[in-house]
Amino acid sequence: MTEERRTCSRAGCRQQASTAIDWRNPRIHTGDRSKTWLACEEHVPFLTDFLRARAFPLQVRPVEPVR
Ligand SMILES: [Zn+2]
Question: What total number of domains does the chain contain?
């Protein structure tokens, strides 16, 4: 995936993302397909809670800051 612009995926947030959240909706994503959201420190809990509330499998990993 391209990560040229690592801004947070939360609507309206323009902060730089520090974390990538790879997630999958088992009903629409088959096999190894997944989506990636980027999150700033502040919105990691918001986005992971959103996914956990829907019982979507997710994986959180740090991303290097872009300079
Ligand atoms: Zn954010």
Answer: 1
